[in-house]
Design a protein that fits this description.
- The chain is α+β, with helices and mostly antiparallel strands and 158 residues long.
- It has helices at 2-22, 28-31; strands at residues 35-41, 53-58, 63-69, 73-77, 84-91, 96-111, 115-127, 132-137, 141-142, 148-154.
- Strands 3-2-5-6-7-9 form a six-stranded antiparallel β-sheet, with no helix packed on it.
- Strand 2 and strand 3 form a beta hairpin.
- The longest helix is centred in the N-terminal third of the chain and has 21 residues, at 2-22.
- The radius of gyration is 23 Å and the shape is elongated.
């Protein structure tokens, strides 16, 4: 009887170890996307909150942000194949701006489980000037780490 309960205990421990090995966490979905993060600031570089709603779409008619109220910034995906991405910023006041982001695509090997992720090097940003005053690259390396890459300067009446 002792040998049967001993074998059962060994079998249970082995099954538990195998289950734990099979449940290894994989954060590929969390860390495989690289977004260009843009902060909204005033002329003095201080954060601002838009009073209008903001809708951001791409040239492919894909809505990235839909009618966000009080936006203080935006995170936008960049193309894996194109070297320039165009974003349309539509404000509730019926004004709109267009933002062009020029970048170099840099494939980066993440791991055997996650494969390759795309990183980018910003080479230029330009915009129309309806509500946006100017834009400036603050960190040209766009990776899967959350950090601001661009400051968008709005003309704000205090």
């Amino acid at each position: 009887m002792k040998s049967a309960s001993g074998r059962l205990l060994v079998a249970s421990v082995c099954a538990l170890v195998l289950c734990m090995m099979a449940c290894e966490s994989n954060d590929c979905m969390l860390s495989s996307e690289s977004y260009c993060s843009m902060a909204f600031v005033n002329g003095q570089g201080k954060a601002v909150k838009l009073q209008d709603t903001l809708t951001v779409s791409s040239t492919a008619d894909v809505v990235i942000i839909n009618r966000k109220l009080g936006a203080t910034g935006m995170d936008v995906p960049l193309s894996y194949t194109a070297l320039v991405d165009t974003f349309f910023l539509q404000y509730n006041s019926r004004l709109a701006d267009t933002l062009w982001v020029e970048h170099q695509n840099l494939p980066y090997f993440s791991s055997m489980d996650c494969g390759t992720v795309m990183h980018y090097k910003l080479q230029g940003v330009r915009t129309t000037n309806n509500l946006i005053d100017s834009v400036r690259i603050t960190d040209s390396e766009v990776t899967n780490m959350l950090k601001h890459n661009v400051k968008i300067y709005f003309t704000v009446n205090d």
